[in-house]
């Protein structure tokens, strides 16, 4: 295998996971062990207000700190988590880390929010709502500091209870975002059907936005729609300054992407917040 240490993460180009996938019992065993032993850890990618350039919050992106294989990316294990019905367990572990992180930041004087990814399948589990409300009850964080994002493609699977759960979460004060917007086929009806606060435009539209007139027109249409529906827009996958400038000029409020910052460990994220705080104060 080749282990490549990038600025972000460690990528594995080997067959061991494929072999592991072939061996379902082994995979199931490893996943259960990982959940029991707390091997899933949240990384954090910052979100920015495009006009001021300030950090507006973070998205938690899960990594599997595998004892032998190293740091694994969601693409290597999320599907397996879902198919082994471990997603509520994963959600609950990531959510607990988020609540603890928000508490730490609060003590340091950083008032932030963190967004957690959830698959729509999890909403069918009646325990999902209890996990969220218990979390808020057990930690000194406000409901609006927790955002939940759900992908358009997982909504398309039409799991039961989704609308009810989203409405209950919203009533609790949690903010909701529709992730990977534009990649599904029923986008517009979802905006009407579910109580989202934010739309995240998928990175596939952003990557071609400066070169491709059609992509630009689509993004413009999404921005106009969001404004009419009183929703805010986050552009995903901003990789260069030109994309940022164009999105800002088009009226997009928030952005996220490698150009601003890659997903980082909790420790690196905290250092970044402290450094930004220091440099801001010395500029005043
Ligand atoms: P997502 O929620 O749409 O997250 C964005 C993905 O794009 C992340 O990949 C992020 O690292 C990557 N990304 C961010 N900025 C850029 C950029 O400028 N360019 C490019 N090319 N990519 C960028 P990641 O961390 O591998 O996560 C992949 C997907 O896994 C996520 O997509 C999300 O759907 C899922 N996921 C991550 N964490 C969780 C979790 O805790 N639970 C569940 N159910 N799903 C999760
Ligand atoms: Mg997401
Ligand atoms: Mg996304
Ligand atoms: Mg995605």
From TrEMBL:
Domain annotation Rhodanese: ranges: 1-29
Signal peptide: none
Domain EAL: 24-277
Protein name: Diguanylate cyclase/phosphodiesterase
Species of origin: Psychrobacter cryohalolentis (strain ATCC BAA-1226 / DSM 17306 / VKM B-2378 / K5)
Residues of the whole record sequence present: 295 to 578 of 578
């Amino acid at each position: 295998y080749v282990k490549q240490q990038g600025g972000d993460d460690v990528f594995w180009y080997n067959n061991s996971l494929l072999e592991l996938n072939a061996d379902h019992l082994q995979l199931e065993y490893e996943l259960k062990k990982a959940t029991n032993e707390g091997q899933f850890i949240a990384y954090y990618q910052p979100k920015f207000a495009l006009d001021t350039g300030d950090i507006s919050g973070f998205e938690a992106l899960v990594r599997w700190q595998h004892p032998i294989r190293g740091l694994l990316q969601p693409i290597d294990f999320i599907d397996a988590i879902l198919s082994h019905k471990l997603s509520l367990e994963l959600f609950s572990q990531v959510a607990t880390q988020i609540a603890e992180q928000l508490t730490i930041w609060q003590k340091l004087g950083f008032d932030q929010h963190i967004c957690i990814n959830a698959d729509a399948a999890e909403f069918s589990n009646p325990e999902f709502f209890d996990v969220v409300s218990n979390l808020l009850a057990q930690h000194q964080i406000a409901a609006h500091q927790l955002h939940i994002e759900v992908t358009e493609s997982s909504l398309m699977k039409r799991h039961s209870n989704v609308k009810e759960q989203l409405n209950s979460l919203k009533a609790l004060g949690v903010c909701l975002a529709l992730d990977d917007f534009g990649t599904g086929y029923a986008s517009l009806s979802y905006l009407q059907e579910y109580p989202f606060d934010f739309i995240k435009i998928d990175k596939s539209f952003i990557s071609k936005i400066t070169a491709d007139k059609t992509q630009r027109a689509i993004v413009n249409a999404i921005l106009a729609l969001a404004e009419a529906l009183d929703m805010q827009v986050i552009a995903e996958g901003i990789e260069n300054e030109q994309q940022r400038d164009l999105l800002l000029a088009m009226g997009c409020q928030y952005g996220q992407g490698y150009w601003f910052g890659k997903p980082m460990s909790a420790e690196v994220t905290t250092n970044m917040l402290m450094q930004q705080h220091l440099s801001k104060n010395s500029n005043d």
